[in-house]
User: Fold this.
Amino acid sequence: MKVLRTLFPVALLAGTLAGAQTLVPLSDPKLPFRFSHPQGWLGVDLGDRASGVSMVSAKAPPATMIRLLFVPKNGKAINVVQELGGFEQGLKSTGVTLKTLTSRAASYGGVSGTEREYQLSKGKDVLRMRVWFGNGSKNLYSFQLTDTAARYAAANALYTKVLATVRF
Assistant:
């Protein structure tokens, strides 16, 4: 199965994150899920042909990035931990130093999976990332938050609210 990955330079696209963000619903018939996202955020095409939604908090860097992606399983059995390992290898192949901070079982919208938090370093740049891989009945899901280490706590709180709205 193709590894879903967020490229390090793209993650540096990142704006300020307002403390009290209004969430607005997004329902697209092309998506196997619906959710609410922060009002005013912008869709972004990262050119990686990933299926799902990628959005940033601002047009100019730095900006918080959220990605809710999926890949059809096409009847294949999926091991989420192996998929996360492939994701991690993909990140490392871009030249970043990857440090796993947490790993836990997590479910969103009734789909179970594994969630990890990472610190990514390349040169003087340090990012934090929270990634959930979920094993749905028809799709493998990869939901991701990426932000600077300094803004991560506020971004993570907002991302948690977004994840609470996910419905499959």
